[in-house]
Amino acid sequence: MSNLVGKFQQLNLKSSLNKEQEAVNAQWDSIVKSGQIQAQLDELNLRLRDHAFILNTLTPTETDAAVFESVLPVIKDLLASSKDIKGHYAKYRHILRWVGYLQELLGLPSDSRVDINEDLELPREVL
Amino acid sequence: MTLQVSFDKLKTHGYALQLANNIKIALALDLAKDGVSFKLNEETDEPRAEDVKSNFRLFNANAILRYALNDFEGLQDPESHYALSSLEALLYHDATAPKEHLEENVSKSLENYVSLDKVAATNLITFANTYALSPAHFEQKFAKLPEVLAKAVATAKLKTPRTAASFQH
B63: nearest CA in chain A? Predict the structure, then answer.
């Protein structure tokens, strides 16, 4: 078991899932395990635009923890390697909101966190 | 619930991944139960199942198959890890992966995981990924497929457009 998922389990946040949520869980489990998280950032952002957490639960689930662990280095690299920081913030704003919440919840040390600039002015999102 | 489902005809990835996705979607269409039904949408090129009314949407063929069968067991089993982390990861890179590495993974799956008599989602996903990576290797070990799998493979092949590059398979 990965570190962050283990840490998440200690928080004891349980949600019972319906069939649709189970299917979405299976979907993101496949994406993480097959190494396709970077290719699915747009889908993840879309999912988090419409739902606070991946499985449309009131509190985060183990799926959030597993996807978060996989997304964290990708988002860090993306923000560190690009000159278009504002563009990436605008494009992945919902992922960044979710990352900010989860890194706080899981008590990540500051050197492991994505440094999120909450003062950045972003263009209005076009839906 | 009736979901509109479409086969994978995307040109952004290779034939083997398309074939694996389409075998899973053909199986989902054939084996759907517990109140799930599918209507084929020929206008979309992406593997997808969606219910327009509720805005419920799946874009991953494994999840579509699991939803159709209402079978979410075994996600953390070693077989499921192997089917996704090794076989499916290779499906995304089958054109560039060394052939020996690919064949070794298929052999390991055939020896340890593939089971043709179980109709559980995890086994069907392992079957589709293993078959699509190397149909010839698969058919050396299993010359005859059970009817439900043979039908899914035939449908998937019909729905999977071939390019010149795909003929290496």
Answer: A27
pLDDT of residue A1: 56
Q: What is the pLDDT of residues B3-34, one digit of tens each?
A: 999 999 998 889 999 999 999 999 999 999 88
Per CB-CB distance under 8 Å, the chain B contacts of A50 are 55
- Which of the residues A34, A45, A70 would you substitute to probe the B interface, choosing the one with the greatest number of B C-beta atoms within 10 Å? A34
Which range is least confidently modeled, A95-109, B18-32, B123-137, B154-168? B154-168
Any idea where the domains of chain B sit in the sequence?
A: 2-160
**Residue A110 Cα, gap to closest chain B Cα (Å):** 30
The alpha-carbon gap from B84 to the nearest alpha carbon of chain A, in Å, equals 5
State the architecture of B2-160 in CATH terms.
Up-down Bundle (1.20)
B interface mutation test: which of A18, A28, A30 has the most B CBs within 10 A? Answer: A30
Burial code (b: 16+ CB inside 10 Å, e: under 16) for B129-168 equals bbbbbbbebbeeeeeebeeebeebbebbeebbeeeeebee
- At B112 the pLDDT is 96
Name chain A contacts of B58, Cβ cutoff 8 Å: 23-24, 27
Of A26, A35, A36, the CB nearest to B63: A26
Identify the CA nearest to A33 among candidates B31, B75, B5, B26.
B75
CA distance linking residue B120 with residue B138, whole number of Å: 19
Q: Which domains does chain A have, with CATH numbers?
A: 41-127 (1.20.1050.10)
Distance, in Å, from the CA atom of B12 to the CA atom of A28, rounded to the nearest integer, reads: 20
ipTM: 0.93
| pLDDT for position B40 | 94
